[in-house]
Amino acid sequence: MENNIDIVEIYTDGACSGNPGPGGWAAVLLYKEARKEISGFEENTTNNRMELKAVIEALKALKRPCKVNLYSDSSYVINAFKEGWLEKWQKNNWLKSDKTPVENQELWKELLEVSKRHQINWIKVKGHAGDEFNNLCDRLATEQIKRNTKKL
Asked: Which superkingdom does the taxonomy of this entry point to (predicted)?
C-alpha cells in the first residue's frame, strides 16, 4: 500500500503542422484497469506549446493528488524538470542564461501550478520508437490537426 496514494501512468505528446501552425495535443492516463484518452487542438501554435499543453491538461484531469509516472518524448518538457531549468528560470525572473525571456512562460507557470499537488516522476521516451502509448498520443494529436483543418 503506497501510503494510500494512487499511482497513475500518463503519456503525453504534442504535434504541429508547420511550426508555428495548427497543432494538437494528447494524453493517455492509465490507472489500474482504466484508461482515459484526452486531446485538443489550437489553430496557431508551436510544437513546444502543444507538448506543454498535453502535460497540463493530463494533470488537470486528475481528480486528487497522485503519484504520477509521466512519459513524454519532449526533451523540452522533461529537461526543464530533470535538468533544473525551471528553478534557474524562476530564480532569474524568467530569463534564460542569455538574458532573453523564457518562451511559453504562461504555460510553464500553469504547469508548475497544476503539478504542485502531485508527486511526478518525469520520464523521457524515444518518440516514434514503438512505445504503444507514445504512438497512441502522437496519433491522437495529429488526428486533432487533421480533423480541425479539413476544408468544408
From this structure: Bacteria
Query: Grid coordinates in use for 103?
Result: 518562451
Looking at residue 1, its pLDDT comes to 40
Domain range annotation of the chain: 6-149
Question: Which residues are marked as active site?
Answer: 13-14, 51, 73, 128, 138
Q: Are strands 21-31 and 6-16 parallel, antiparallel or unpaired?
A: antiparallel
| Residue 51 is assigned to a ligand binding site | yes
Class of domain 6-149: alpha beta
Q: What is the pLDDT of residues 84-107, one digit of tens each?
A: 999 999 999 999 989 999 999 999
Total-model pTM: 0.94
